[in-house]
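Q: Convert this sequence to structure tokens.
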Amino acid sequence: MKNKNTKPELRMYFLVMYNLSPIQQGIQALHAIVEYFLKHWKDKEFWRWALRYKTVIVLNGGTSNKGHHSEYGESKQLGSMENHFQTLKTNKIKCAAFYEPDLNHSCSAIAFLVDERVFNKKDYPDFESPNPKLFVNLAHFNDEVAWSLLVEKEKREYTRKTGKDVVFLKEFLKQFRLA
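A:
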């Protein structure tokens, strides 16, 4: 584990539309970081990332659809990019999105900062349910309710130690692959 007085390393993560060329994914990510800057320019963590780290991770965020009806009368559907943006905001993650005018104002990129407690699995491992074999009292193995309560207690303790935002981002980011 790292020194508690050391601030964690930061990376700027981007979700980009899946159907863009690699160069366009990079350009849209740049647009999103400008939006992030305009929205969060007073944030100390942003400046710490910009001055010290500058590392970016570009991930495939899927589709974009602002929720319009199709010509076939299907119900209004949001694309995965819009859903991801809403999920980040709902979980109080500082983020910003860029809507590309040349792509019919599609949500082409989303930017958000991630600290190493999320991506450094060696020093900050993911939550794992306790191994029942480690417990001496075998009577509880057959009691699913007792076991699930124990797992929930362990997860709450893990969340308290690592932070709600870290736990959320660890789970959220598992669904994405590099663009």
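The mean pLDDT is 88.
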